Amino acid sequence: MTRDWQVRSQMVQSASAFRFSEYGGTSVLAWREVDLPDPAAGEVQLRHEAIGLNYIDIYHRKGIYAPPLSLPAGLGVEGVGVVTAVGSGVGNVSVGDRVAYVGGPPGAYATARNIPAVRALKVPDALTSEIVAALIFKGLTVEYLINRCVPLSGGDTVLWHAAAGGVGSIAAQWLRHKGVTVIGTVGSADKAEIARSKGCAHVINYREEDFRDRVREITEGRGVRAVFDAVGADTFAGSLDCLRPRGTLVSFGEASGPVPPLKVADLGAKGSLFVTRPSIAHYTADRSEYEAAAANLFDAIGNGFIAAPEVTTYALGDAPRAQADMEGRRTTGSVILLP
């Protein structure tokens, strides 16, 4: 009885959050007060300390991510916060714990919210909420891409598009530690410096050079083991041309637009290639796999293998402007929102 009183005494009964009722530009996002019910069975309630902003949020807002959200809806798929209440049947976290989460129902653009307890990961005391928010989603993305989607090891060479971005910056660091040679593409001289500083052995400014020609030159015509492409329409065809025989194209985003239809026979003609369109949801759906991936990430951060890329912060209420800046490619590194 005493424990139940303690739990309920710390619950947040309302919150401020972004909601949207139609797909479109940033103008569809409305900042409003929302009721926050008690956490249901299997849920925890938390007060956000930092929230990660990701390109998937823009896809959700536009309705171009399959399947589209059921409207009206919240936005945001990751955050870090302090648990203020727990529902029945929850045993993995307690009130007062600081946790991070990735996935589950969108709704992270809020001062507080309820989430499924199975998505809550305890955060090591040595890591700040801002650093975790800057790294957790992007870091878990890199973890599954380079360890499980295409297992990479020393001696491999890969091409990574948008190498100065949040995911690319983390990947370059982690891959360098693994002994993998990274060729990164960027769109400006400033971003080229960022990519080099994070671990890219070779950097291609795609506005000045044809990345296909440069990759062939760098690899002496052999091609790369894998291409990691979150750009989409502008780079997909060229990415296939950069692969060595039996190489893999990992298409995990489409910042420049949807990927055009692919003729499967072309994969054979170009060298028995593989193409995959992975989702972090499928690589973290199993709780034990999710926890193991997070432990791997926290260990990499703690041991200095990776550090947060340049972090840009916006007030939570400025989320529409933050999204517009990201969509306009005016950001580098990680973008976080602070309540």
TrEMBL record:
InterPro entries according to UniProt: ADH-like_C, ADH-like_N, ER, GroES-like_sf, NAD(P)-bd_dom_sf, QOR-like, Quin_OxRdtase/zeta-crystal_CS
Keyword Repeat applies: no
The keyword Signal is assigned to this record: no
Residue ranges constituting the Enoyl reductase (ER) domain according to the UniProt record: 24-337
Keyword terms: NADP, Oxidoreductase
PANTHER family: QUINONE OXIDOREDUCTASE PIG3-RELATED, QUINONE OXIDOREDUCTASE-RELATED
Protein name per UniProt: Quinone oxidoreductase
Organism whose genome encodes this protein: Albidovulum marisflavi
Lineage, uppermost ranks: Bacteria, Pseudomonadati, Pseudomonadota, Alphaproteobacteria, Rhodobacterales
